[in-house]
Give the backbone structure.
Amino acid sequence: MVFAAAKVLLVDDRQDNLVALEAMLQGLPVEPVAVSSGEAALKRLLVDDFAVILMDAQMPGLDGFETAGHIKRRERTRHIPIIFLTAADRDARLALRGYAAGAVDYLTKPFDPWVLRAKVAIFVDLWVKTQQLRHQAQQWARLAGAAREAVRLLDEPHLGPQAAQAREQLRAALPLEPEPATLRHLR
């Protein structure tokens, strides 16, 4: 099955930074989606799924830390990795604030574009693998349901000994039911 390109949410109040981020991501199998505020990011997250978020930490209005807090509180978005980007010097308190807000990384400008690309590529690869697992889990559920229905149909008493043999083979082939929590995080 072919999946849609992974989307990367770019959040920065400066248009020139958004253009630079889009340029850095060229050539990666991603669809960059640029927004200029934390509020716009939250709205976009209501309708689209993203592999990773690249977010400016310091923006007017809802800053990156506050935006990340909202993202991490939502069930639908709490698992999306956030990489903070900031022009502030290497202030350890800002980095700690970023990690406390749920960031997986915190990069200060100027940063190496190849390092950023490598980090994004890793999260995109994880997102693609998650999509594949979700698809396989859905396939498994459909197949298991069909097998259970076949067993039910073969339980008819008038079908004879061959049906009983087929029923037992199907029962033996049915996998154990997955625990709901195992699949819940893939949603």
Observations:
- The two ends are 18 Å apart (CA to CA).
- The mean pLDDT is 83.
- The first helix runs from residue 15 to 25.
- DSSP finds seven helices and five strands in the chain.
